[in-house]
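Discussion board: Methods & Data

I've been asked by a reviewer to show the raw model output for two of the constructs in my manuscript, not just the figures. I'm not sure how much to include, so I'm pasting the format here to get opinions. Each protein appears as its amino acid sequence followed by a line of C-alpha cells. Is this the kind of thing reviewers expect to see in a supplement, or should I convert it first? Here is construct A:
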Amino acid sequence: MHTHGIVWALVAVGAAVSLAVIVRTKWLQSHTLPKCVLLSVVLHAVVAVVCSCLGGLSPASWGQSDSGPMTMVVVTAEDPADGLRPADGDASPAAEPVADVINVAGLEAATRSATAEEPVAPPAEHVPLLEVASEDDATEENRPVEPEQTEVAAVDAASASAVVDHSPALSAPAGTAAATAVPPVYADRMAGRRAAAAAARGGSLETERAVQAALVWLAAAQSSDGRWSAARHGGGVERSLQGHHRHGAGAKSDHGVTGLALLAFLGAGNTHQQGPASEVVARGVRFLVDRQRADGSLAGDAEFFAALYCHGMAAIALAECCAMTGDAALRPPLEKAVRYTLSMQSAATGGWRYAAGDKGDTSQLGWQVMLLASARQAGLTGLESAEARARTFLQSVSSGRTGGLAAYRPGEQPSVAMTAEALVCRLLLGMPADHPCVGEAVELLARSPPETRSPNAYAWYYATLASFHAGGPQWEVWNSQLQAALLPLQRRESSGLDGSWDPDPVWGGHGGRVYSTAMAAMTLEVYYRHLPMHRQNLPIAVAPGQPMR
C-alpha cells in the first residue's frame, strides 16, 4: 500500500511538471479554448490523484467506517433579546428559588424611632438578601437599631452547593461569622445597622425595596461559573459618544460587570462567608480569582478600551470582600491586583488611562483611586506615592474659581460627571469636606439634577457619592431629586426583567443590563455602603497589615 502511494505521487508530480512546461511554452497560443478545456481536465485529474494519495479512496467521512447511525448537532446563536434571560444550563442555581416577597417594616420602624425593645424575627419561610441582626451599642455613628425586616426569598444554599464545589479558602459553613471586625467605613452595611443608617441619612421604604429587587434580579442573572455575562445581558452595543467610537467595547467585559454586581451584594452586607447571598458572592469571587493573570490583571478578555476599567471594578470588589472578612486567602490576589494598578499609573502625570504610562483621564482615575482606598481598608500599605501622583493629576484637570471643577483630560471643558468623580477622589485622598473647592463642585451638581428623561447611571452614581460624602443641606435636595428620577426607571413586571434597570443611553450600551442594575443598586445603597467622609477623621484609618512589596 505504501509503494502504491509512492507511485501515484510520482505520477502526480510528473503531471504537474508537464503542465508547467506547457504553460511556459507557446502551445496555448493557438486553439486556446480546446486546449484550456484539456488542461482543466488534466488539472482536476492531478488534484484527484493527490487527494487519493493523501486520504485514500474511501474516506471515513463517506460513512463506510461508521458503526452506527450518524448524529447531526446544530448550534444556534442566541438572540440578544433572549439573552436577557439565562440560557438553560447556564443560569445560576441560585436563581430558581428566588421570590419577590418584601417586608420593610424594619426600616419603617427605624424611621419612627431610634430604639427598639424587642427584635422581631423575620418569617422562617423566607431568607432575606439583606440579612437581619440586632446590635445594642449606641454611639453617634452606631445608634440603637430597629431590626430590619426588609426581606426577599433568596438563594437556596443547599441546592447551590450541590452544583458548585466551593473551596474552603473562599467560603465558610453556613452561619459562620467573619473572623475579623469589619472596618468602621463599611460597618453600617452590615445586618442590624442598615435600617438605622438608611433612615438617618435619607433612605426610604422605596429605596430598600428597589435594592432588594435589584439583588434578586442580579442573583438570577449570574451564570453557573460565577460570572455575570455582559454580552448575555445586552453589553457591547456600540454608540458614538462625543465623537469617539469604542469598537464595541463592553461585549467581553464580564470581569468588570461581575465586579460591579459583587459590589452591589457587598454593599448590602453579603460576603463570601456570611449573609443570605454568600453563595452568590463566593461564586463571583472565585471566578475573578481563578482567572487572574500572572501580572495581577483582573481584566479578563476585555477589549483595549474596557480592560483597565474592568480590572479596577473587579479589584475593588476583591478588596472590599477581603476587608469585610479578613480572609487571608484573598490577600495575595489583592496584592497582585494592586501592584498591577500601580504599574499602569503614569509616573509623569499621575493618571491612568488604557495602557501603561498613558497620560491619564479622570474617568479611569476614579476607579483606581477607589481601589487604593479599598485596599487600605484591607490592610495594604505603601500606597502614599501613588496617591500623591493622583493628586497631581487631579490638579491638572481642575478649573473654576477654587479649582473645584474637573475635566475628562487636561485642557478640556469641565463636566458634571468628571467634577463629581474628581470630588469623590479628592475626598478619598484626604481633602476636608469644608474645603472651598468641595462647595464649588457641589454647586455644579446642584445645577444639573438627575432627571428621569435623561438617565446616566455613571454620572448619577458619582454625583450621589460626591453629594453624600460632602454632606450639608445640599445632600437632602440631591437625594430627593435622585429618588424621584431613579426609582421610576426600575422594571416592575412579572417578566424576567423585574427589579432591573434598562441600559441608559450614555454608557449603558457598553455594560448592558448588569452594569445599569448594579450601578443603580449601589447608588441606592449609598446611605450605608460607606461611613460619610464628612464625618470621618481623614486620612482614612489603615487597618494593620503588611506593606506592599
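Construct B, same format:
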Amino acid sequence: MTRNGNGMSKPAANEVLLVTSGDLRLSANQVCWPAQRDMEEKLTAAFAQKGIKLVRAHAYDEALKHGFLSSQRAGMDVFMNIHPEARLVFATAAWQYSHHVLPGLRSHRGPILTVANWSGQWPGLVGLLNLNGSLVKAGKKFSTIWSKDFTDSYFVKSLEEWLRDGKITHNLSHVKQFDAAKLSAESRELGTALAADLQHRKAIMGVFDEGCMGMYNAIIDDELLNPAGIFKERLSQSALVAKMRTVSEAEARAVYDWLVAKGMIFALGKDGATELTLEQVLEQCKMYIAAVRIAHDFGCDAIGIQYQQGLKDMTPASDLAEGLLNNADRPPVFAEGTKQELYAGGPLPHFNEVDECAGVDALITNRCWTALGLDPSTTLHDVRWGDDYKGDGVDGFVWVLQISGAAPANHFAGGYAGARSERQPAMYFPLGGGSLKGIGKPGEIVWSRVFVEGNALHADVGRGTVVSLPQEETGRRWKETTPPWPIVHAMLHGVTRDQMMARHRANHVNIAYAPDAKSADKALATKAAMFDALGLKVHLCGDALSS
C-alpha cells in the first residue's frame, strides 16, 4: 500500500478492501458472526482465484467477539482511513444497519461492490437489499452480486466484470415503463378518481419514531410525500407505552379471548426469558388497543411502529399488534370509556419498521382494494431468501417472503385458525412477545415497492402466485430462516431470481391477495393508475398484467 498526503493507505493494484456492517445489538452480532466469517472466507478465496487479495479494512474485535461495524461512529472512523479511490467490497451474511457504512460510502469515489451470501440462515440478503436501496436513494453508483458459495458461473462472471470494468451489468429487461393509456378506461378512471380523492381529503401517516434500523431507504422526505396528498404525524413510541398503561387488564383480556375463540394458538410457557408467557401476550394486546386509540386521536389513516430500538427494552414485541392492525377481521377496539368502535369494518394499515415507502403502498392498496370490493388486508415482507422446487404441481424458483410476525391472518391458510403465536428470538427481543405466524394461503397476489430514486417517488408493481408446498418442504424453509415468523411461498410472474435481486430497491416488498388472476390484474391496473395520477413514476415488472 502507498499513502497520500492525508495518511490514507492506497491499496496495491492486486488488493481490494472489505467492510461489513452489523446490528446495534451485541447479542445479534455475536450470534451471526460465524456465518459472516464463513462467507468472508469463501469470498476471499473467490477473489484469490482472480489474483486479488481481499483485505479487511477493520479488524475482528476480541472483546466484542465479532468483526462487524456496529455503530455509525465506528463506520465513520474506519472510512477515515480508507483511501477514497480504493476498490471497495461491502459483504454481509446477516441483517445490518446501513447507516453504519452509508456515510463513508456516500463520499467514496472508487468502485463499490455489495455482496451477500445466498442463505436464509440470517437475513443477509435482506441487509444487502436495504443497503442497495439506500445507495439508490442517495444517488450513489454501485454494483451488486450474491452467491451461495461464490463459485457459480453467474457470480464468477460478474466478479470478473467488476474487477475489469468497475461495474456489473445485470439483465433488467423485465422492467417496463407504465403507460396509463394502455389500461382499460375503467381501471384508469377509477385509479385517477381515487388519487383525486386522496389529494382532496389528505391522508395522515402516523410515524412512531422515524427511521428504524438504519433504513435510510425507508424514509420519504415531506417534499416528495406531500404532493401525493399524504402527510406525516410524527409520534413517539414513548407515547405508545404511556397509552398502553391506560388500557385495562379486562380490555386486553377481551382481545386475547377473541383470538382464542377464532382458533388461534398461543405457544405459552412459564420462563419469560426464553418462552412466550400470557403476561407478554396481554401486554401486546394492550399495545394493539393503544395504537388504535392514538391513531384515532390524531386522525391517522395508517400507522407505523419502529418496534425495535428503544421499544424492545420497554415492552414485548409489537408484531402481534401489527398483524392484527393489518387484518380486515380483527378484535374490536373502542374509544376509551365508550362503546364507539374505532376503524370498524376493516384494517388500520400498519407499515412495519416504520417503512414509509411501505406505508404509502399500504394506504394506496387499502383504497384500491376497498373500491374494488376486495379484501384490503395487506402487509410488507422481507425478501428473505428462496430456492428451486419441483413437484406437487410446482416447478420453478419459489421465494421465501417473511416478516417478523406482522402479517394479517387473512393471508394465512385457515385464517386465525391457521395461526400461531410463538416467542420472538431473545437475541432481538429480550422482553419477549409473540409473533402472528402462519403459512401464506395459495392464491394470486399483487406485489409492489414504492422507493425513492433521483429525488422522486417510484413504484415497481408486479404479479405473483403463492403456492402450497408440502409440510416437509415448508418445515425445511422455516428451519433455514426464522421458524416463529410467518412464511409465504411466492412465485413472481416473469421475474427471475437474479432479476429481482438486481432491480429491487428495498429489503421489503408489499403484497395483497386477489381472488383470481383476472381480479389481480384489475387491482394491479387500478393501483398503477392511482400511483401514476399521484405523480409516482410507475414501472411494470415481469408479466405484471397477465390477462
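Answer (T.O., handling editor elsewhere):
This is acceptable in a supplement if you add a one-line summary per construct. For B, something like: The longest strand covers residues 378-391.
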